[in-house]
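Input.
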Amino acid sequence: MTAPTKHLRDQIREMLLDHRGSDNPISSREISDELGIDEVESFPVTRGLIKEILKEDKIPVAGYSQGYFVIETEEELEDYLDNLDSRAMNTIQRKYLIKNAASDHGFITHDSDDTENMGISDFL
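Output.
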């Protein structure tokens, strides 16, 4: 990691630590604007650094459409884990639907699943 990126990461970490609890989120736009990060609308740099903070610093950061916050209670944790489970299930359902549609159009000629041999380490 370059020195400027590490500095930016540290600044984001401090901003997140100032936003504890689900009633006090900070959006990617607010982070990006405050730090002067030149990004496209989906804020990939900010999101990537937040993911890195979660992974490396082990700060329990939740992210919803309203923004990010540090989880403070067991209820917030459970709500966020339920949200992640729901999003994961929706993604799996969408994958199934698109594979079926593609199969009906002749794009897929076999029923193999390229994720069957993936483990958790593939995501870390």
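The helical segments are 3-17, 28-35, 44-57, 74-104.
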